[in-house]
Specification:
about 130 residues, alpha/beta, three-stranded parallel β-sheet, two-stranded antiparallel ribbon, 5 strands, about 40% helix
Length: about 130
């Protein structure tokens, strides 16, 4: 599985938790730092981010892809729309949560959210 990380750097413990939750070995992790200019269009900036991922059309469509989306909701929404267009489906995403009473604040993998399953279920509710 290919993990594309658009958020804070992941620890070895995070990667181990992801493999345990997905029951799939990570073959590679692609780190894409996200720093946007709020005065420029987010669509162009997201397209630039996705090009930096460096996957081929075949890899987008046939690879097992997991995404740790950017923290800012607007950017995350556009990233997921762009990935859906390239892959043909919504990728699963990683959700983190803070560890209670941790000092300094520590975030851990909380769950893997299967967006395509949510989308498919919602279609049946139309």
């Amino acid at each position: 599985m290919i993990l594309i990380n658009f958020a804070h750097p992941l620890t070895a413990e995070d990667l181990d938790d992801i493999e345990k939750m997905t029951k799939v070995q990570l073959e590679k992790t692609i780190e894409i730092p996200v720093q946007f200019d709020p005065d420029q269009t987010f669509i162009k900036q997201v397209k630039s981010l996705i090009v930096q991922v460096g996957l081929t059309s075949r890899e987008w469509q046939a690879g097992q892809i997991l995404v740790n989306p950017p923290s800012l909701n607007y950017i995350a929404a556009v990233v997921l729309a762009e990935i859906h267009g390239r892959a043909g489906y919504f990728p699963p995403i990683v959700r983190f949560k803070p560890v209670s009473d941790s000092l300094p604040l520590v975030f851990r993998v909380a769950e893997i959210i299967n967006l395509q399953t949510i989308r498919d279920g919602a279609r049946r509710s139309r």
